[in-house]
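Action item from last week, closing it out:
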Amino acid sequence: QPLVSSSKWLQLHGLKRNKLSLSQILSQIGFQHRKDYVTTLGKLVASRYADGLFPQYKRAQDGSVYNLTAKKELILHFVDCLMGAIELYKQRMEWLTSESRQIFGVIQERCIVIVLDFGSVAPSEFDLCRDALSMVLVEQVTQIAKFNLIRAAQDLTKWQQKSTPVSDHTVKSAVTWLWKLDHMTAASHTSSAEALLEAMSDEAVSS
């Protein structure tokens, strides 16, 4: 799936975009039972001619009442549309909470620098971190324009001197570099900040 934010995804696939929100459906399957103030009479007048003629639906949000006039076929059509929307939402949620996205979210920037700060993790955790980073490189970084990796340490280490265009070759090179890193390296209390500053100094990186 393309790396788009949930807000952009909803603009394309949301209920409102597809005229499936409750108010949109109600306007297509009936009409509102109104109680309006008539200025000439100086009082509220209710349209009672529909009482008993149609099934009615009362919205819990604002208490408005709708007279339902649609045939069964149209109601079932909306049921099918809503079931399809529910399935699409489920698929989106499963995608958002799987693989590299459950750790890194959905990368939306076109150019990124990933700062690696392993601290003093155990060897097994170090490998888990590298597994996760390899996953995000293969699954998400392959879909953007440029990237770089910087390791926070006393002697700051960079995969490339500046952000590099994404290709199969550069992603494989970055994964190989990642797995050649030493588990323990000397660190200082300022190494994390220095690595972040170095990442931000890349002119291609906006944030």
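Closing note: DSSP finds seven helices and nine strands in the chain.
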